[in-house]
Amino acid sequence: MSGIATVAGLALMTLGTLFLLVAAIGLIRLADPFQRMHSATKAGTLGTALVILGAMLLGEVARPQTGLLTILFLLVTLPLGAQLLSRAAYLARTPMEGIDEDPLADEDRSGLRRK
Amino acid sequence: MIGLVAWTLMALLCVALGLGAWRMLHGPTPADRFVAFDMLTAVAVAFAALTAVATGRSGFLDVALVLALVNFVATAAFALFLERRRS
After folding, report:
1. What does B33-45 look like in DSSP terms, one character per residue?
2. Are B87 and A113 in contact (CB under 8 A)?
3. Domain containing B81: what range?
4. CA nearest B59: which of A66, A90, A32?
């Protein structure tokens, strides 16, 4: 049983690290902040959660409640943070790659801003 | 064996850290830098978890939890800053 848990934990940690690596490559390769956010947030969340899950499965070090709390918190806050950031980036008129005509470009966005 | 794998994975994560840092230093718009910072903190959380496995000290998992907590506050603050910057 513990042998299986060890192998599964190591596999999950490796998978998570690869996900984080892919996220970092996407951060370099993609064209504008919104695309980079897409790579960094999704792959980054999954990668980090997998690494912590693997560390929990390895058993001898991890306290399961801390790990579970961390994973739960990551899954809740990283997408939230990305949404806040993308909204702010759009309101700050960050240029978007591949979108030549933004139908909302002439709109007055001041109503969307927080006072 | 487990420790060796954990150290190897940390060496791999260093590549991700370097790529993220490059984007954070060069990224043309402030939004790029903030996205890269978000990503770097996620990498740091993974680093903390791997360190807990490699050294056998479960205290590093608490470090991961705190980093995840601080990350959200930092991202929200940066988003607010970005939103108000050009008003």
Report:
1. HHHHHHHHHHHHH
2. yes
3. 2-85
4. A66
Q: Is the Cβ pair A27, B76 closer than 8 Å? A: no
Q: Do A13 and B6 touch (CB under 8 A)?
A: yes
What pLDDT score was predicted for residue A95?
76
> How far lies A52's CA from each of A10, A57, A73, B44, in Å?
11, 9, 12, 12
- Name residues 49-108 of chain A within 8 A of B (Cβ): 51-52, 54-55, 58, 60-63, 66-67, 69-70, 73-74, 77-78, 80-82, 84-85, 87-89, 91-95
Structure tokens at A76: 């809740």
The residue extents of the domains of chain A are 2-92
Give the mean pLDDT of B46-70.
Answer: 89
Query: What are the per-10-residue average pLDDT scores of chain A (115 residues)?
Result: 83 93 91 87 91 84 79 90 87 76 65 56
- The complex scores an ipTM of 0.89
pLDDT at B43 over 90: yes
**Percent of chain B's residues with pLDDT above 90:** 44
Burial A24-63 (b: 16+ CB within 10 A, else e): bebbbebebbbbbbbbbbbbbbbbbbbbbbbbbbbeebbe
Separation of alpha carbons B35 and A35, rounded Å: 10
Distance CA B64, CA B70 (A): 10
Domain count, chain B: 1
